[in-house]
Amino acid sequence: MSKQFSVIGNPIEQSRSPELHHAFAAKTGVDLSYTKRLAPLDGFVANIQEFFSNGGSGMNVTVPFKEQAFAHCQVLSERAKIAKAVNTLWMENGVLHGDNTDGQGLVEAIRALDWPLENTDILIIGAGGATRGVIYPLAQAGAKKIVIANRTLARAEQLVADLQNAVPQVELQAISLDTLAGEFDLMINATSASLSGDALVLPETLQFKRAYEMAYGKSSSFLDQAKARGVPTSEGFGMLVGQAIESFYIWNGIKPDLKEFL
């Protein structure tokens, strides 16, 4: 009998997880079925309990349930603890395990572009959950300095204070968007500003060699500005594939090659 997997969220219609996991399965020979589950906002826990009690093997978690999943897990990976969010669930001996593969997905996507991460200076725009989830994997991948820029400086400073002990090998710094300046190897947009049309204007005082937009499938003023400077760019589809591959690997012990799915 094929293994049963699912992705849970609200809304869920837009999720591309089923097509990705079915593509991985076709490539690796894993026998699985992967569905979408729309859960009511107050019905997340009941939904996952039903799924696993009916023999489900693993579940991905998307907006807005990642923090609830984190709170509900009995065993958490190091990167899930640091992200304070879970996007990958599975049962082991009746115990619910949780991991967060988003940050590793970003790292794998950047590596697939052949962009360096070792000894790099990175600027991340935004101080929300997306940024929190990628700091540890970027540090593990060899980043030397990570600067977090946010409209509200206090929020970026809080994130630095929260994460400093988890990544002692990296220089973490918080700045206000108003003071964007300096030279960076990589700039990452982790905000939704470029999608909502609330355009972030990148000042001339800011120099960067590469630009990564976490979102995908929509126009991005952030990437438009980077392209106008002749800087290599990428949108976030590779990150989506990368996090899915990492979940697939946790569940099935096989790691598909990300470059084959871009």
From TrEMBL:
The keyword NADP applies. The active site is at K66. Shikimate binds at S15, R16, S17, T62, N87, D102, Y216, Q243. Belongs to the shikimate dehydrogenase family. Involved in the biosynthesis of the chorismate, which leads to the biosynthesis of aromatic amino acids. Catalyzes the reversible NADPH linked reduction of 3-dehydroshikimate (DHSA) to yield shikimate (SA). Homodimer. This is Shikimate dehydrogenase (NADP(+)). The gene is aroE.
